[in-house]
Structure formats: structure tokens, C-alpha cells
UniProtKB/TrEMBL annotation:
PROSITE patterns named in the record: GST_CTER, GST_NTER
Protein name (database record): Glutathione S-transferase family protein
UniProtKB keywords: Cytoplasm, Transferase
Pfam families noted in UniProt: GST_C (PF00043), GST_N (PF02798)
Record domain GST C-terminal: where: 84-213
Subcellular location: Cytoplasm
Major localization class: cytoplasm
Domain GST N-terminal: 1-80
SUPFAM superfamilies for this protein: GST C-terminal domain-like (SSF47616), Thioredoxin-like (SSF52833)
Molecular function GO terms recorded: transferase activity
PANTHER family noted in UniProt: GH16740P-RELATED, PTHR43917
Length: 221
């Protein structure tokens, strides 16, 4: 198997962290997003969408982070995607929640404007998006803190699941803007718990360097 990805990609990091804890024969192929490698003819021949991550397993090809995570978890028979219909649906629900409600307010609006996304947007639009995100993100952070993580160490219960790997990558986008998670003790404890896993260092080293660079630019501006 080959995983085409970039560690600075929000949707690549959950897979890299998960794979670091599994015994699966997956070759990691870096697609340098900052260099535009995702839009080269060579990569577009592999994935016409021109995005990462993308998994190739023989003749089988699949994109989208959540789908790749589920495929790899099933291949590895990993407990991170538990057996049983209801247990799996709860993980699916949490993944969908992170990818929709939370992603829009916190990632797209609050964090991505700090790196000039959407590309080509005026400074005024980026500032407006950021302001909207900071106003509306607390609603979803409160849900995560007071409901999803209340009384349990992980998003779906006592055991880590795919929802934790995916959700962590979204939440840590707050590093771009030095987001203050004071007032969300369960989120803080969950982040610390996830960062304590040995797999975190290998999956997030490049991102932490990149996020530090972004914060430094903001402070210098």
C-alpha cells in the first residue's frame, strides 16, 4: 500500500498518527503541498482531485481521510474502529460532527484565515471570517468539552477511536492562532492525553514547526 500525503495537511495527520500505532505495510509518499506537488501531472494521474491524502492498495484507490482511516482500521482489525453496528455508528457520528459543524466554525473560519485560506481572499474578508469563527466556535467547543468528553477520556468512551485521531488534527489547528482553550478543561486533558502517545511526535513534528512559523509571522506583522 502507498499513502500519498503531507504532514502539514490537516487530513493527513490523523492517518499518519494512526499508522504509527499499527503494523501495516504502508509506504508513505510525501506530496509537498507548499511546492504545489499535488497539482503536477504525475500526481493528478494518481488522484485527479489533486488533494491529499490518497491511498493506493493494488488496484484499489481511495481518497478522503475518514474513508482511508476506516479502511486501514478494518485491514488492521484495530479496536479504534470497534466491532458492532452501534459502536461503529457512534464513531461515524463523531467523525461527521468534527468534519461538518466543528470544521466550519473552528477550522475554516477561525484558523485557516491565519494562513491566507481561502487563497486569494482579501485581508478584509480573512479578518471577517476570523471574527465570525471566534464568535461561533465556542458553541461547538462547549459541546466537545461538556458533552462529548465529559466523564470519559476519549470522544467515544474509554478507548481511543478514529474520531480522536481525526478530531485532534482539527482542534490543534488552533495552534495557528494560539487559540486559548482555557475554560475547556476536558478538551485540554484530551489534548494532553493524545499528545502523550508516542505516535504524536512522528505525525505532528512538521505541523508544529509550520504552526510556529505562522505564529511568528503574525507576531511580526
Amino acid at each position: 500500500m502507498k499513502l500519498y500525503c503531507d504532514p502539514i495537511s490537516t487530513t493527513s495527520r490523523p492517518i499518519l498518527m494512526f499508522l504509527a500505532e499499527q503494523d501495516l505495510p504502508v509506504e508513505i509518499v510525501k506530496v509537498d503541498l507548499l511546492a504545489g506537488a499535488q497539482q503536477t501531472p504525475e500526481y493528478l494521474a494518481i488522484n485527479p482531485n489533486g488533494i491529499v491524502p490518497f491511498l493506493v492498495d493494488g488496484d484499489f484507490r481511495i481518497g478522503e481521510s475518514a474513508a482511508i482511516l476506516k479502511y486501514l482500521a478494518i485491514r488492521a482489525q484495530a479496536t479504534a474502529y470497534p466491532e458492532g453496528l452501534q459502536a461503529q455508528v457512534k464513531v461515524d457520528e463523531a467523525i461527521s460532527w468534527f468534519s461538518t459543524q466543528f470544521h466550519e466554525a473552528f477550522c475554516v473560519m477561525t484558523c485557516y484565515p491565519a494562513i491566507g485560506v481561502p487563497k486569494g481572499a482579501s485581508p478584509e474578508l480573512l479578518a471577517a471570517l476570523s471574527a465570525y469563527g471566534h464568535d461561533h466556535s465556542p458553541r461547538w467547543l462547549k459541546v466537545l468539552d461538556q458533552h462529548m468528553l465529559a466523564g470519559q477520556p476519549y470522544v467515544c468512551g474509554d478507548q481511543i477511536t478514529l474520531a480522536d485521531y481525526l478530531g485532534l488534527s482539527y482542534v490543534l489547528l488552533g495552534d495557528f492562532v494560539a487559540y486559548d482553550f482555557d475554560g475547556y478543561p476536558n478538551i485540554q486533558a484530551w489534548i494532553a492525553r493524545m499528545k502523550a502517545r508516542p505516535s504524536f511526535l512522528s505525525a505532528y513534528a512538521a505541523f508544529e514547526t509550520f504552526a510556529g512559523f505562522i505564529r511568528g509571522q503574525a507576531q511580526a506583522a
